[in-house]
Design brief:
heterodimer; A: mainly beta; 6-stranded mixed β-sheet; globular; B: mainly beta; 7-stranded mixed β-sheet; 4-stranded antiparallel β-sheet; 1 helix; 3% helix; 48% strand
Chain lengths: 113, 116
């Protein structure tokens, strides 16, 4: 069975600072994808960043980057220069061997002005 | 391009009643997924349609849940009869051919179901 664990139910960060959200996973698949999704309050979940397991280079999307440690099965999300609009629930997810996503429980991020 | 839409946004029903949730995927997306998040727990996969066919329904909790996707367009998820433990947020997602787009799924806003 595939699992995703987010050990931080809540995190907070000051505006303009950097925050890192943790995620670990487990899968027996050799080919898989990892995702971070963001769900702002009362809004739809949107994809923030995606990482293919076969790529060693960490994915980056503007202020969002990941630290993908394949051997450790770790996939953390770093948000730089945090903005008020970054406040949301962040879900780490895994897809391997099939199209269904396996999610973690989520981390609620608060951005303080 | 319109996103994934879901109706209703919120439904409150009594135990034993029937509720039908609807999902309209992004036009042209053959893949449609249903997920559910029970309060405080992970978002869990329910099932996956490719066009009108059920590709994977391994996450459906029991036979009180019935999903359909007539004509390969919108999908409905019926819960009959509803139980208290069915309360949660039901998400729908759609995607194009995963082999080309690497599993990127677009999510709807969810339907919050409360069974009292």
């Amino acid at each position: 069975a595939q699992t995703v664990t987010q050990s931080q139910p809540e995190m907070s960060v000051q505006e303009a600072e950097t925050v890192t959200l943790s995620c670990t996973y487990d899968t027996s698949e050799s080919d898989y994808y990892l995702f971070w999704y963001k769900q702002p309050p009362s809004r739809q979940m949107i994809l923030v960043i995606r990482q293919e397991a076969y790529k060693q280079q960490n994915a980056t999307e503007n202020r969002f980057s990941v630290n993908f440690q394949k051997a450790a099965k770790s996939f953390s999300l770093k948000i730089s220069d945090s903005q008020l609009g970054d406040a949301a629930m962040y879900f780490c997810a895994l897809a391997g061997g099939s199209e269904k996503l396996v999610f973690g429980k989520g981390t609620k991020l608060t951005v303080n002005p | 391009e319109a996103g994934v839409t879901q109706f209703p946004s919120h439904s409150v029903i009594e135990k034993g009643q029937t509720v039908t949730l609807r999902c309209d995927p992004i036009s042209g997306h053959d893949n449609l997924y249903w997920y559910r998040r029970v309060m405080g727990k992970e978002i869990k996969f329910l099932l996956h349609f490719v066009k009108e066919s059920k590709q994977d329904e391994s996450g459906m909790p029991n036979n009180r849940f019935l999903a359909e996707r007539t004509g390969g367009t919108y999908s409905t998820l019926k819960v009959q009869p509803a139980e208290l433990e069915d309360s949660g947020v039901y998400f729908c997602a759609s995607s194009q051919d995963f082999r080309l787009f690497a599993y990127e799924q677009y999510f709807g806003p969810g339907t919050r179901l409360t069974v009292t």
